[in-house]
Amino acid sequence: MENRTIMKRLKKLRAKMKDHGIDYYMMPTSDFHNSEYAADFFKAREYFTGFTGSNGTVVVSENWAGMWTDGRYFIQAEKEMEGTGVTLYKMMNENVPTIKEYLSSNMKKGQVLGFDGRVINTELGNDLEKLLSKKGASISYNRDIADEVWEDRPSLPCHDMYIITDELCGKSFKEKLKDVRLKMKENNCTSYLLCKLDDIMWLTNLRGDDVECNPVALSYAFITDEEFHLFVQMEEVTDDVFDYCSDNDMVLHDYFEVADFLKKTRLSGNIMYDKRNVNYSTYRSLLACAKRSNVELENVEDPTEIMKAVKNETELKNIRDIYLKDSAKLCEFIYWLKNSIGKEEITEYSAAMKLDSMRKEIPGFIELSFPTISAYGSNAAMMHYEATKDDFAVLKNEGMLLVDSGATYMGGTTDVTRTIVLGEISDEVKMHYTATCVGMLQLANCNFLKGCYGRNLDIMARGPIWAMDRDYKCGTGHGIGYMLNVHEGPQNIRWASRPGLSDAVLQAGMIVSDEPGVYVEGKHGIRIENILEVVEGVKNDDGQFLHFNQLTFAPIDLEAIDTKYMQPKDIEALNNYHKMVFEKVSPLIDDEKIVEWLKEATREVE
Amino acid sequence: MENRTIMKRLKKLRAKMKDHGIDYYMMPTSDFHNSEYAADFFKAREYFTGFTGSNGTVVVSENWAGMWTDGRYFIQAEKEMEGTGVTLYKMMNENVPTIKEYLSSNMKKGQVLGFDGRVINTELGNDLEKLLSKKGASISYNRDIADEVWEDRPSLPCHDMYIITDELCGKSFKEKLKDVRLKMKENNCTSYLLCKLDDIMWLTNLRGDDVECNPVALSYAFITDEEFHLFVQMEEVTDDVFDYCSDNDMVLHDYFEVADFLKKTRLSGNIMYDKRNVNYSTYRSLLACAKRSNVELENVEDPTEIMKAVKNETELKNIRDIYLKDSAKLCEFIYWLKNSIGKEEITEYSAAMKLDSMRKEIPGFIELSFPTISAYGSNAAMMHYEATKDDFAVLKNEGMLLVDSGATYMGGTTDVTRTIVLGEISDEVKMHYTATCVGMLQLANCNFLKGCYGRNLDIMARGPIWAMDRDYKCGTGHGIGYMLNVHEGPQNIRWASRPGLSDAVLQAGMIVSDEPGVYVEGKHGIRIENILEVVEGVKNDDGQFLHFNQLTFAPIDLEAIDTKYMQPKDIEALNNYHKMVFEKVSPLIDDEKIVEWLKEATREVE
After folding, report:
1. Are strands A412-413 and A407-409 parallel, antiparallel or unpaired?
2. CB proximity B471 to A under 8 Å
3. A449 vs B471: CB contact, 8 Å cut-off?
4. For testing contact with chain B, the best of A441, A452, A468 (most B CBs within 10 A)
5. pLDDT of residue A99
């Protein structure tokens, strides 16, 4: 069946492209800062394809449109784009060209690729320019054509900013700024354009609400040896924030003035920037500024990233505390779900709403750290499935519900996944669930030398899945912000290194997720996700050993565990973990019935 | 006490340095091809310092001499250089300058650093030139001053070359050459200077005997689209080899003519070379050739390296066969050792001689693949300990003997380590031995996706050692040549990546060693080394799975195994391995008593 809505939109877009002499028009999934979640204002790709996933880039020509997305979304994208005429390109699959390869082989001499340079990163912009110039084609980056077609486009997010106290942050803006200026000096630069929203928030101890689930304000920061310029939407600056900025010698500018500011500024030293995080339009302004000032642009990985990743003692104390509270609430939710299923109608969506509303009861709740994933049965095989108010499955007392959820509170950002048994499950499911549990615990309990990257450890979690000739098509773990983004770098737990992916040696104070899974299309999906803190262990002649401490304390579903698939040490690890869960969480739960249930849910197994 | 011999030699050297206007003269440990083992001809550093270790560089000035070596040799170097006036510089120790740092802070404007550019690699030569030019100092690389002083210098190794039949190699020289030329084309080059000896041997299906334990001939190969030039010592070219070269359109040149040849040659396309493997003098000749021809030098990793690493079916068949024979012989040796200890005097050295002589009985034996390591008790904690005719420990019926050994045969090159119980051992030793066994088997039995590097898998072997807050200060595994060097790249099993170390994704047909260990200084050393072949497993939507097949079949010493440190799956893995050992090796052993012993040594444990 044809999807007329999408087809009409594409038709209008093509007409505008023709008007502006654009042969191919590209729309990625990004705001002006390459944020993980783009606000509705930025969802041009969704508007023109129907595909709602979090990662995808559409390219449109006169008589063709292609949408590129990754393995998490193949099934969903196919479903959502049915009847639109848009072709799905499965990224990383054999014989599937990348966007660059596609454009390079299809664009002809004299043709023009258009895109809004503010939503394209510098590297891609530069690559495309070089690539196409070889073919005699060119780019046009300063027009947002989607905007000319898009009726009722949502407005740019604009919400009040707020201040996090130094007590809650453990380090003041001025102290952090001093560290950043040291890094500028190390890189022989006298100024630095920082465009990464969570890094700007981390540095200033400010927060905002402009990106879904990320407590950040749309902003730029321009730092010199003497000055600190902050570009934000002035409507967001409350009196308190204004005073705080004044007190801290921050010079406030309007968000949209950054390009003009760079155009006017003359500098006497080199400018530091991180090409991964500066959008192509801003990069061009910066380049012009450098040329005029006769100084160099120094592409350096944002030093704020690693500073932010290694949590300080105050942050760690608060994180440990909030993870306990969040875990207790999740336990109450699991109890509710297991005891209500079959008694009242529960859907994927209503279960998510229930959990969300329970989290809101926790003091200091700010917002969800990402939209709760509540996926029943085979829906859970879609790694980033999202049930909505209008499209959901009804839960039955059989199979499992996968719930991946978390929130940002005053005191930390959480993330946790449990796959919950609702009734009968097959032996195969038990085997897969048990392997996932073994993998999660194996990584959590491993001891390793300082110097390790996540790639050295990934097999601890993934090994039990690989042993079954299966894989999960994503990393095992990601970093997590402090009252910030639920996904942050540079550290990660992945086995494959891809160029452009940031990476860092694991060190004490870092937080990583540990989330192996088994996903069988059309059948079931299992994920168990705990959050771990990297801590120091023994130091001896062989070096500094590191290991993990658990931050998440919620039961692994024993109804899905078959100990015949476990070694004694795996069983011991599970029992030890469950003992901790009960000891730490039960004091936070008032309802005796739930405590009783938790006791049973965390019982020792053999 | 003064070491007059060394002091006299240094005095003569200094006089010659003065004659030639050289202020500092540097002598490293290397032949002209950066081979792992340098022949006596190349041991100038030993001649002028007395230090006999395998790694060290001496720098001599008018009134000072310094010798740099690594941690393996600190004690030995101090002892051997006593009374020579040569200062020991302990590499990697805190506050010890590197050679570059030393020269950079001590050399003055106008001074000259001399070295024989044929024993210095391109990168170091370039670095030194740049570094010193900043100080107004310079290098002089085309004079071997040591040669002018060195009385009775051993002659350059010069032994007959021989041909390996195409049947034994599985691929002819001409076929291999075609593949190499394709790589030249891919890199937009019309010629290629190959300096790596084992790569030249692999490519030509020739062998030699010029480097200890490596069946290679000193040689260079210069490949163009049309021609193949081989530079060897003409005395090495037997009639058969001469005919073979003629038949294969190889143009033979004398080994020392390569520089002249490059000086004379004019080329019409870019020249490929690998700066890791080209010595500085040759690089300068190449650079001159490129300049004169007005073409570029393209620094590319020798493509022969990966071609050589992925064994073809013929090679694999022969390797599997020769490893069985080698394993059977090792079993006989272990039997002999266990039954002779306490009955006759056996020393580290005599045990090694015994094993070496047993290997020589295997048809097709060519030479040892490295000097047999036979280390008793605490000697085994020194990773590169070598007992000699004059310096050895006597074995008693207590503790363990570590034996790391192998040979090159017509049909393959072997490498294997067993740590053999001779009598009573402590519980701690059993714990360490069992962890080493578990690590070795865990890596050998893991299932992984194509795309993995060794760094993704290293923890499978190392994890059980790390779990005890211990580490072994070396990689877990290396590649192994086919009738070639026992250590070859580019693949490896290591956890840490160091710049300059080559690496490659593991693929079917590669051979790697799997040799975890525990080394406790002053107490004991344990290493268990099996050789593994990478093979393809299941291929499905998740990708191509790979795993390992065992090539080595010799018992793990059950007297050192305590199953209380093992999980059921580890015990099962050990029993499965031992079952294979008996099944595969017992048919190759004639002596019934040994077969009986092997049956017992490979019995099932619980």
Report:
1. antiparallel
2. yes
3. yes
4. A452
5. 96
Residue A68 has phi, psi (to 5 degrees) of -100, 125
Q: Do B36 and B80 have their domain in common?
A: yes
pLDDT bracket for residue A71 (50, 70, 90)? confident
- A87-121 pLDDT per residue, tens: 999 998 889 999 999 999 999 999 999 999 999 99
List of chain B residues whose C-beta atoms are within 8 Å of the C-beta of residue A458: 456
pLDDT at A3 over 80: yes
Mean per-residue pLDDT, A463-471: 98
Q: Is the peptide bond before B490 cis (omega within 30 degrees of 0)?
A: yes
Q: Which residues in chain A are closer than 8 Å to B448, comparing Cβ atoms?
A: 459, 466
B-chain residues near A447 (CB < 8 A): 463, 466-467, 469
Residue B33 lies in a domain: yes
Strand partners, B488: B479
Q: Does B571 touch chain A (CB under 8 A)?
A: no
- The residue whose two tokens read 């000096």 is A185
- B467 and A447 within 8 Å at the Cβ level: the answer is yes
Both A402 and A290 in a single domain?
no
Chain A CB contacts of B496 under 8 Å are 451
3-state secondary structure of B488: strand
Of B379, B377, B383, the residue nearest B425 (C-alpha): B377
Which among B432, B456, B539, B569 is the top mutation candidate for probing chain A, defined by the most A β-carbons within 10 Å of its own β-carbon?
B456
Contacts of A457 in chain B (CB under 8 A): 459
| CATH number for the domain that contains residue B202 | 3.40.350.10
- B582/A67 Cα distance (integer angstroms): 57
Domain range for B388: 310-601
Nearest CA in chain A to B568: A567
For chain B, say whether A452 makes contact (Cβ under 8 Å): yes
- In chain B (606 residues long), the average pLDDT of successive 10-residue segments reads 94 97 95 88 95 93 95 87 96 90 95 96 94 94 95 94 95 98 97 97 97 95 97 98 98 96 92 95 95 95 97 98 98 98 96 98 97 96 85 95 98 98 97 98 98 97 98 94 96 85 92 97 96 98 96 98 98 98 98 98 98
Distance CA A161, CA A154 (A): 20
User: Residues with Cβ < 8 Å from A214, sequence gap 6 or more?
Assistant: A35, A36, A37, A197, A198, A484, A485, A486
Q: Which chain A residue's Cα is nearest to B495? A: A456
Q: How far apart are CA B341 and CA B369, in angstroms?
A: 26
**Residue B5 to chain A, least CA–CA distance (Å):** 38
Residues B474 and B527 in one domain: yes
Query: pLDDT grade, residue A36 (50/70/90)?
Result: confident
* pLDDT (0 to 100) of residue B500: 67
The predicted structure's pLDDT at residue A34: 85
ipTM of the complex as predicted: 0.92
Q: How far is the alpha carbon of B557 from chain A, nearest alpha carbon, in Å?
A: 24
Say if residue A300 is in the same domain as residue A314. Answer: no
Peptide bond into B363 cis (omega under 30): no
Contacts with B, A 429-448, CB within 8 Å: 446-448
Residue A302 sits in the same domain as residue A317: no
Query: Which of B470, B538, B543 is facing A542, going by the closest CB pair?
Result: B470
The answer on pLDDT for A501 being more than 80 is no
